[in-house]
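Note to self: user wants both folds in one dump. Writing first protein now.
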Amino acid sequence: MNAVEIARLAKSSTTKLQALPEEQRHMALESMAQSIEKNIEHILEENKKDLADAMANGLSTAMIDRLSLSETSVASLSKMCREVADQEQVVGTIIEQYSRPNGLVIQKQRIPIGVIGMIFESRPNVIIDGAALAIKSGNAIILKGGKEAHFTNKKLFEIISQAIERILPQGSVSLIETREDVKEILTLHQYIDLMVPRGGSSLVEFVKKNATMPVVAHDKGLCHLYVHQDADPNIVVPIILNAKTQRPGVCNALESLILHEKYPDNKNILETLFKNNVEIRGCQKSQRLFPDVKNASEEDYQTEYLDKIISVKIVSNETEAITHIQKHSSHHTEAILAKDPTVIQDFKNGLDASAIIVNASTRFNDGGELGLGAELGISTSKLHSYGPMGAREMTTTRFIVNGQGQIR
């Protein structure tokens, strides 16, 4: 089928998907989980092909990290399907009810958005995440992964298709594979209700510019962490190392560190980062404190490195820290380590980000860690959702008006 036929079929499945009993959604997700478990070896074989091509083509370390699957990570996809299945029902639930003076009973009901198009780069696990969340939320989904994960994406989609073909309507989960298909589906607003780009800024901007339907962008994560002068010394270094070094190639990894000049352990923080093979690019104050810090340019403070590189700024107060973050934020994740409740409140009120994290790692801005089971991505838009998008964030609401003959 071509892109138009795929989109048309997806649209035709939406009313059937909305009407499905919750037990059938659960059955589809359990079938997916079992199929993934049975095919771990086949999935890893296809992933090795993609990894070989990636290395031959000189892809970055961060890209290869996002592309790589292991037996553990594939098994976690199966677990995720079951976790999403076991969550509370989303579709059709009444979330609000009230009566009017004329006797009308007004209900607000949660319903699917319809057809969601998702274009993403490198991470093949998104095929499973997107499909599972779409099934739970009653949406049809059209997926387009990056060419760097071609073999893995194709195998995962094949597994999904076989698992759900006798349970869900045809067209519930679809895959497109070419750039021409992408250009085509961006024009099909009559069939596709929402477009979700997840990847680098160039991909996001392309989709924003060309899509004829609403777009929820999942853009870069230039994540900051501010260490206030009263921060608990027992948590500061472990949190910074976790945020920066656990997986530097992901969007919720720490990219820019801001230190209060009166925090007593600043030198040790810089030394510890350096000992953990992190390249530090900082201001003059940080260079005077630790000579291995390289000079940071204005561009460094604007950069999502996705690597073991970090920018550092030493400030004289929390207002200066907030102002610096406001200037450079990508509205993804901003974190503070502090005790003073007034400073924490000022930090929360002064910044606009999809997640504000207090005394914990930036790595917690993640659908699984926030209890969503999985995520379609982390929205840096504000409409229709802000932050990690789980099944609930993939729905909208409508009014049900119950009367007994009332007229206006």
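First done. Writing the second protein, which came from a different request thread.
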Amino acid sequence: MKKYLSVILGAVIVGFLLSQFMINQYEKKEKLLTVFNRGEKVYLIQQGVYSSEESVLKNTMDFSYYITSIENNMYYVYIGVTKDLDNIKKLQGYFDKMGYITYSKEVFVTNKSFLEILEQYDNLLKTTTDNAIISAICNQTLSKYEELVVGDNKD
């Protein structure tokens, strides 16, 4: 009987240790998924890249609202934001008529408030061809992006 008791006790201990190992692996995987939640894909419409603040000011006089980000000592200027691929084409066509070549840059946003607002602005943008409305939508979406996403990342 003592022989069986030690085998059973050993099996229970090994089972307990293996179950602890499996639970730890699951928890690590859950944490990893939370850390790497990239958010939702959004497209920034980039107007240009400049080496100085003076160049930015000189080349953005036609825009009533834009945002800049500094990466590797270069100033990136963004003049629009959308989630919709058709709206990218519409915005790029609008800016092309103004004489600007633009590029779309993919970023990931996790701020749910901004994503909900952007969805509404994207729906408005789909239905309009009025340049004044397109300009107002760009200004509003950039303003909200700066407030809710860029401001949120500074905290």
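Dump finished. Worth passing along: Strands lie at 40-50, 67-71, 74-82, 103-109.
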